[in-house]
Amino acid sequence: MTEFWLISAPGEKTCQQTWDQMMVATTRNNNLSTNNKFNIPDLKVGTLDVLVGLSDDLAKLDSFIEGVVKKVSQYMADVLEDSRDKVQENLLANGVDLVTYITRFQWDMAKYPIKQSLKNISDIISKQVSQIDNDLKARASAYNNLKGNLQNLERKNAGSLLTRSLADIVKKEDFVIDSEYLITMLVVVPKTSYADWQKTYETLSEMVVPRSTNLLFEDHDSGLFSVTLFRKAIDDFRHKARENKYTVRDFQYNEQEMNADKEEMTRLSTDKKKQFGPLVRWLKVNFSEAFIAWIHIKALRVFVESVLRYGLPVNFQAMLLQPNKKNMKKLREVLNDLYKHLDSSAAAVIDVSNYM
């Protein structure tokens, strides 16, 4: 995580002089931070009432957009699943990494024309990010449903023989099919009881067909055995099997249903692969859009707060500081000392972090 502090201080005789003072205080001999000018264009100031109203609105909008940026980045990590190490390379702003974008920030005149009022620019950004948020909810819901249905089917084909689907284990030849009198049943037998099963299965109830059992499949703990008996003995056989700690699985061989399950899994798996690429591209594009919008809101906040605190004509320098982690406390002390002649709330610190 890379943390930045976005501050503004009133211009001295010139804004360059303000910048030079801050650079001397934070970098000469002490290397407290790496600093960049944060370029904010000449925006329309408007009336004092509008600025005061915008101050509150922008703080809320800042928080909302940060939430959307986090949601998009977190969902990117969820979608990439086993390739989470590739998340960072997909989280770019305007095609560059986030640190580069912030430290070289330039206002996007095409997206957010500065001839518009501050309120209009704020509304444009708000609508844009709200649309991203709504689209994310819809896309995530559709993809999560697809993924969830596929995982449910995959879970059915995994796990213990006591619970998993048997459709991919058994074959048609394992069963007596379409007999009026006979039925093949499937029994889960613990591995430690194989010998007992072979000795006793024929006498668990009446009407069990001798030498009809076959081991069809094994997992770590148990084996799946088939056994054929007369239909009228089913209930008695189940009861006796349970008494002997064998589990009779409810299963009827139905080729049509089994094929339908396999086709459904193939369809869901294919649909997931089809949606994956476009979804990652959408997340990549809209993370960039949301992050860019967020930094523009930061710029608007700095502008509005600076005009409210330092007055007119507009004369302030916005500066982006990347603190040296070991010296954060010292950096705050130096900044407080440098700007102690200002109102105590004048040097606003806004953190831009979490995504680098």
TrEMBL record:
Annotated Gene Ontology cellular component terms: lysosomal membrane; vacuolar proton-transporting V-type ATPase, V1 domain
Protein name: V-type proton ATPase subunit C
Molecular function GO labels: proton-transporting ATPase activity, rotational mechanism
Entries under InterPro entries matching the protein: ATPase_V1-cplx_csu (IPR004907), Vac_ATP_synth_c_sf (IPR036132)
Pfam families: V-ATPase_C
Function: Subunit of the V1 complex of vacuolar(H+)-ATPase (V-ATPase), a multisubunit enzyme composed of a peripheral complex (V1) that hydrolyzes ATP and a membrane integral complex (V0) that translocates protons. V-ATPase is responsible for acidifying and maintaining the pH of intracellular compartments and in some cell types, is targeted to the plasma membrane, where it is responsible for acidifying the extracellular environment. Subunit C is necessary for the assembly of the catalytic sector of the enzyme and is likely to have a specific function in its catalytic activity.
Domain of life from the UniProt record: Eukaryota
Subunit text: V-ATPase is a heteromultimeric enzyme made up of two complexes: the ATP-hydrolytic V1 complex and the proton translocation V0 complex. The V1 complex consists of three catalytic AB heterodimers that form a heterohexamer, three peripheral stalks each consisting of EG heterodimers, one central rotor including subunits D and F, and the regulatory subunits C and H. The proton translocation complex V0 consists of the proton transport subunit a, a ring of proteolipid subunits c9c'', rotary subunit d, subunits e and f, and two accessory subunits.
Record family assignment: Belongs to the V-ATPase C subunit family.
Family matches, as Gene3D superfamilies: 3.30.70.100, subunit c (vma5p) of the yeast v-atpase, domain 2, Vacuolar atp synthase subunit c, domain 1
Keyword terms, alphabetized: Acetylation, Hydrogen ion transport, Ion transport, Transport
